[in-house]
Design goal:
alpha/beta, four-stranded mixed beta sheet, 2 domains, elongated, Trna Endonuclease, Chain: A, domain 1
Length: 370
């Protein structure tokens, strides 16, 4: 029985691995993409036609390396391909849902699909397997066709390192030219830093920023826990002012510092004109704040004819306390320790910027019509 060239031919050695990744690993044999549905696929295993249950299904957007071989195969006929057509073909190839296509990278500036397919193209281009023909278009090179003539089960960054141009790209060293102007196939390079296995550079940066922020939040909360109750009350007022309450006037927010006030530690105006006031309570506690404490604060607010209040603690609130504020007419916002330090970081209270990294991208509009 011969394989129908309109279907995807699965490499038997990679079938199990492909199933674990949620897609086929193999070679593109014809002009169509493989027929898939939401929870099954059709393909060839060895010399037998098979209906493979559960291999192709809706999943998270594949990592960029999963796109390297399919993008190269999409251009196998040598015709020019547009980036937009390539992205659409990859979405169909991996049977991606509308939600998966709409998923955004952490910055929100680009879809995850667009970002990862674009990086796959960048890496293939740096390896010399595809080449740019004009803005947002490319075609396969002779080197790319040679790879597909004896196709690997998959292409990843380690595979691309066998190409000197890609190795030079990763090590930021340009191979020296030979006497005829071509680059020498093998060059002596410094230690090559391998790319992260499954992430694009933007994702690496985003993960590093999240790790740094998590570490900062933990360290910041430790500092807040060590400060005096009086300092913590001032910190709460400073934070609310940094968030835009009270306007620019330093007198718009103040610490009351009175005992027997029902737990009201500070007052801050809600706007620049001081038309309404927000009452504050600061609890530098290690144990959770319960409903009785919140009820006492609500009663104190009523004594001041106030209807807006904020309780901020270094710990957290019990479920009973949170349920209580949802049932009363007085508006009380509860801010626990983790949210507190997140707000402090976001509004530069108790922290400072020590380093800034700027990511630039080619401005295609500048070169329009060049």
């Amino acid at each position: 029985m011969q394989a129908n060239p309109d279907y995807w031919q699965v490499n038997p050695a990679s079938t199990v691995q492909a199933a674990n990744r949620g897609h086929y690993a193999g070679i593109w044999c014809g002009r169509k993409w493989p027929q898939t549905r939401s929870n099954h696929g059709i393909g060839w295993i060895g010399d037998r036609f098979a209906h493979i249950s559960g291999i192709v299904s809706h999943m998270a957007v594949p990592k960029y390396q999963a796109f390297l071989l399919p993008v190269l195969q999409f251009a196998v006929d040598g015709d020019e391909r547009s980036n937009r057509d390539t992205i659409e073909a990859m979405a169909e190839r991996f049977a991606m849902s509308a939600d998966e296509r709409a998923e955004r990278i952490p910055s929100g500036r680009q879809s995850t699909l667009d970002n990862r397919v674009s990086w796959a193209q960048t890496y293939l281009r740096q390896a010399g397997l595809i080449e740019s023909t004009r803005r947002a278009h490319f075609r396969i090179t002779g080197a790319g066709k040679a790879v597909l003539a004896n196709p690997p089960a998959h292409i990843d960054a380690s595979f691309l390192l066998r190409f000197s141009a890609f190795a030079a790209f990763k090590s930021r060293v340009t191979p020296p030219p030979t006497s005829d102007g071509a680059t020498t196939p093998t060059v002596s390079l410094p230690t090559i830093v391998l790319p992260v296995a499954t992430q694009t550079p933007e994702e690496v940066i985003a993960d590093a920023c999240r790790d740094l922020r998590t570490h900062l939040a933990t360290e910041l909360l430790e500092h807040v826990m060590q400060c005096s109750p009086a300092f913590f009350e001032r910190l709460v007022v400073d934070l609310l002012r940094a968030m835009g309450y009270g306007g620019a006037s330093t007198s718009a927010g103040r610490v009351t510092g009175r005992s027997g006030d029902g737990g009201i530690d500070g007052i801050i105006t809600e706007d620049k004109l001081g038309l309404d006031a927000v009452y504050l309570q600061a609890k530098r506690w290690s144990g959770n704040v319960g409903r009785p404490t919140v009820q006492e604060f609500a009663g104190a607010m009523q004594g001041h004819k106030a209807d807006k209040g904020v309780i901020i603690t270094t710990s957290e609130f019990t479920a009973d306390a949170r349920d209580y504020v949802r049932t009363i007419s007085t508006r009380i916002i509860l801010i626990g320790g983790r949210q507190l330090v997140d707000l402090m970081i976001d509004h530069d209270v108790g922290v400072r910027i020590v380093e800034t990294h700027v990511v630039r991208r080619v401005d295609g509009d500048y070169f329009e019509g060049s």
